[in-house]
Design a protein that fits this description.
Alpha-Beta Plaits; Rossmann fold; 384 residues
Amino acid sequence: MDSAEFIRLLLRSLAGPRRASRRQILRIACDADYRALLRTVRDAKKTFRRLSSVEPLPIIRAFVFRGELDRHALRKLIGRCAVEEDAPVTVHALPVPASPPEWISKPFIPAGIRAVRVPAVWKKSLGERVRIGVIDTGVDFSHPELQTCLARGINLVHPRMPPLDDNGHGTHIAGIIAAAGRYGMRGIAPHAVLVPVKAFDHQGSAYVSDIIKGIDWCVHQGVHIINMSFGMKQRSESMLEAVKNARRAGVVIVASAGNDGKRGFVDYPARFKYTISVGAIDARGGIAPFSNRSRRIDVFAPGEKVLSTWPRGRYREMTGTSMATPHVTGVLALAMAARPGLTPDQARKLILAARIPLKVKVKGRTVRFAGRLDAVRVFRRLKL
C-alpha cells in the first residue's frame, strides 16, 4: 500500500469549496492498513494544514473528512474499504411548548418515574457507581439537582470547552436519569454517575461521525450504559459498527425509537439489534400517538409531558421517545448497581422478561406490542 498516494488522494478530495462541503466516512477493513494510514495522516498534518479536517474514528477503523474521494482509485490503492456519507442525526424530542420553564420549590417525584414503580425499589438500589454516558446536547453543570451526579465529560462540538448545554435536551435527559431530589425532582438513579458527551449543537443536530466519536470516548471511559435519545431514518454501516463494537466491550446501549407515529418502523440506531430500543407511552399507559411502534421495539416507557431539569436551575415538560429512553437507562442503572457485572445481553433479556404486556387495537383487532417498563418486575427477575 502506497501511503503517500493516499495522502495525495485526500488532498485532491479536499480541493475546491463545493467538494469540501461534503462529509464522508472512510472505513478500512484491514487493521494493519488502518494503523499505517493513521500514522501517515498524523505525520502529514504537520506539513499540510488542509488535512486538519481529517479525523480518525478508531473504534471502526475509519477516517471522517470533508470532500469526495475517488472511490475507484481508493479501492485500487487500499482494497477492502467502504465510503459512506456522514449523515445528519437529530434528537428525538417534539417541539417544546411556548410556556416558560418552571421553578420548583419543593422536592417531588415525576409521574413517569412513579408509573414505572421506581420508588418501590429504591431501598434495594440507587444506582451506585454505575457510569452512564449521555450522548446529547450537553448538560447544565450548575443545576442544583445535577451537581452531585456529573463527571467531567467531553465537548465534541467545541473541543476546548466543557460540555455545556445550549439547547436543554441533554439537561432534561440527565434529570430523568439521575437528579438528586434535594431541592426539586428526584431522578431514577440518583447515585449513578452521568458522563455527558456533547455531540449535538444548540439546534439538537449532529453527524454520524460525532456519535461514533462519542461512543468511542465512552468505551474508553469505562461507562456501563450509553443513553441515545436521538435517531436518523437512513441506515449507517459506520454507526452499526460503532454500536456493535461498544457492545462487545460490555457497554449497554439504550436508544429511542423515533417520533413519527409510524407502524412497523423504528429509527436508527434503535433499529439495530445490538441496542435496547425504546418507544413511548402516554399518561394513561397506552402507546403514545407520536411514538413509532414496531415489533423491533423492545420496551415502552413514559414519554408524554415528562417534567425534568432544564438549564439555569429550572424545570420543563418535554414529550418524545427521547424522554422514554432515560427511564429505561435509569432502571438498568439500578439493576446494574444491585447486580454488578450484567452483560449487555443479560441486561436486554432482563428488560424483555420484566415487561408488562401492551395490547393495542389496530383495525378492529388486538395486537400485542413489546410491553412497558416496570422496575419492580425487573428486580423480581433479579431475585432481589
